[in-house]
Amino acid sequence: MRKPRLLILIVAYNAEKTIKLVLARVPQRLAEEYDVEVLVLDDSSQDRTFEQSREVQRDGALPFPLHVLFNPINQGYGGNQKIGYHFALEHGFDFVALVHGDGQYAPECLPELVRPLRDGEADAVFGSRMLERGGARRGGMPLYKFVGNRILSRFQNAVLGASLSEFHSGYRVYSVAALARIPFSLNTNDFHFDTEIIIQLVLGGMRIKELPIPTYYGDEICRVNGVKYARDVTKAVLVARSQQLGLFYDRRFDCQAPPVANAHYQPKLDYASPHTAALALIPAGARVLDLGCAGGYVGAMLRRQRGCRVTGVDCFPLGPGVELDAFLRHDLNDGPPPVNMADFDYVLLLDVIEHLASPETFVDRLRDALKLAPKTKVLASTANIGFAINRLMLLSGQFNYGKRGILDLTHTRLFTFGSFRRLFEQGGFRVLDTRGIPAPFPLAFRNEKASRAVFAVNRWLIKLARGLFSYQIFFTLEPLPSLDYLLQEAHLQSAMKRDAERLKAAAG
C-alpha cells in the first residue's frame, strides 16, 4: 500500500529571520509514514524570505521535496492559504498541514496532528492552545488576546452548535478530500479565513478533532487588527446562522450535502403550520388528493389518525416507510394529474404553488378539472413575502434567497395575502377562510422554552396585523361554477320552466 501523501504548507510573509529554522524543525520521521512534500508560499514579502527558502531548497537540507513559490501580488493571510490548498488538490495530496513561517506554531507537533487523519478519525485536526489549562498564558499569550479568544470562541460555539476549545488557532491539518467538499475559494482573503473554513466544516458535517499544542509568542510582528478581526468573525458566524434559519443566503456557507429529492421539505406536525391546519380541517373518512405531497407524511398522518383515503401526487417518490392508498409520479408544471376530481372531498396544495413555473396556468387548469366537482374543497398555503423580517431586510437593502424558508432558492413566485387571493379568485375560486401561520420557530431555536415563547408572541402579533406577522398564508377555497356550467344550468332551468308552463297550460 502506498504511503499517504502529506503536503506541509508554510505560509510566509516577511519571515526571513525564522523561515530557515521553521523548515529545519519539520520532523524528518514524517517520511517514515508519509510521502511528504513541503511548500513555502511567500506572500510577496518585502524582505529575503523567498531567497532564504531557496537557499534551503538548493542545499537539499530537507529529506523531502521542497517547493518555493512567490506571489507577485500580496494575497493576504486567507488568500495565501487558498493557493496552497489548491496546490494540494491539483497535485493529489491526501492531507495538507498549515504551518506559519514565523515559528509561532511548533512543527515538531506535526506527527501527532496528522495521525488522526491517517487513522480515519477526523476530517480536520486543529492544534489548540486552550486544551491545557493555563498553557496559553504560560506560553506568552497576551491577556487581551486570551480573553478575546475565549469570548469569541464561546460565542461561535453557541451560535454554530459546536464545542471547540478555540476557533482561532492557525495550526491545522486538513483532509484534502474534505477541502474538496467545501467552497473555501469563496472565503475572505483576510485573517478571518480560518473562522470561515471552520464554519464550512461544521455546516458540512465534517469531523474536527483538537489536540493540545504548546503556545509560543516571540518577537514576531502581529499584523491582525483585533477589533476588525472580532467584527469580521462575528459577522461571518451570524451570516452562517441566518442562512441556517432561511433568512439569508451566501454561497460560502452552502456546504451541506444536497438533500435526497425533496427530503428538505420536513413535515411540520408538532406546532402550528399548514400541515396541522389541514389536519384540523379534514374530517374523518374524507377522500383526499395531496398535490405535491413531498414525501407523503401529511397523507400518512391523515390515514392513521382520521381513516382518510389519500392519493399522493409528486414528481419525487414517497419517503421511506410511507404508505398511501395511491401514489402518482407527476410533475405539476404539466397541470393537475389525470384523476377524476369528483372522487375527492379535499385537494391539498400545501407549499406547492410557489414552486411552479406558472401558478396562474396551474390554477386555471385546476379549476377546469374541478368543474364537475363543485363541492370539493381546496386547502392551499404559501410563504408570505410580506413577513416582517423580509420587510426589514428590504429596508436595509437585503434580498437574499436561501436553502429554505420564504426565499427558498426553488421558489419561482412570491405572494402576499392580497396577491394570493387574486391568484385564486381570478382563477375561478371562492376564498372561504384565510389564516396566518406563525414562523417555524421550533426549527430555528435549540431551546424549547424559548421557541414556545417566541411562537406564542408571533401568534398574538398575527391577530394584530396578519399581513405583517404571518410567516405563511393558508386558504380554504372552493371552485366557483364555470361559465360552461352556468350556461348549461341556464339551458336546463329554462327547459324545465318551459316544460312546467306546457304542463300547466295542458292542465288548464
Calculate the mean pLDDT score and round it.
88
- CATH H level of the largest domain: which superfamily? Spore Coat Polysaccharide Biosynthesis Protein SpsA, Chain A
The helix/strand class is: alpha/beta
Helical content stands at 25-40%
Give a quick summary of the entry.
This protein is α/β, with parallel strands linked by helices and 508 residues long. It has helices at 19-24, 30-33, 49-59, 76-90, 110-118, 135-138, 143-160, 176-180, 193-203, 226-244, 274-281, 297-306, 359-369, 388-395, 417-425, 441-444, 448-464, 466-469, 483-507, and strands spanning 5-12, 35-42, 66-70, 95-100, 124-128, 172-175, 208-212, 287-291, 309-314, 326-329, 346-350, 377-383, 429-437, 472-479.
Describe this structure in words.
By secondary structure, the protein is an alpha/beta fold. Helix content is 39%, strand content 17%. It folds into two domains: 5-253, Spore Coat Polysaccharide Biosynthesis Protein SpsA, Chain A, CATH 3.90.550.10; 274-483, Vaccinia Virus protein VP39 (Rossmann fold, 3-Layer(aba) Sandwich), CATH 3.40.50.150. It has 19 helices and 14 strands. Helix 3 links the parallel strand 2 and strand 3. Helix 7 (143-160) runs parallel beside helix 10.
SSE topology sketch:
Layout: E1 5-12, H1 19-24, H2 30-33, E2 35-42, H3 49-59, E3 66-70, H4 76-90, E4 95-100, H5 110-118, E5 124-128, H6 135-138, H7 143-160, E6 172-175, H8 176-180, H9 193-203, E7 208-212, H10 226-244, H11 274-281, E8 287-291, H12 297-306, E9 309-314, E10 326-329, E11 346-350, H13 359-369, E12 377-383, H14 388-395, H15 417-425, E13 429-437, H16 441-444, H17 448-464, H18 466-469, E14 472-479, H19 483-507
Parallel strand pairs: 1-2, 1-4, 2-3, 5-7, 8-9, 8-11, 9-10, 11-12
Antiparallel strand pairs: 4-6, 5-6, 12-14, 13-14
Helix pairs in contact: 7-10
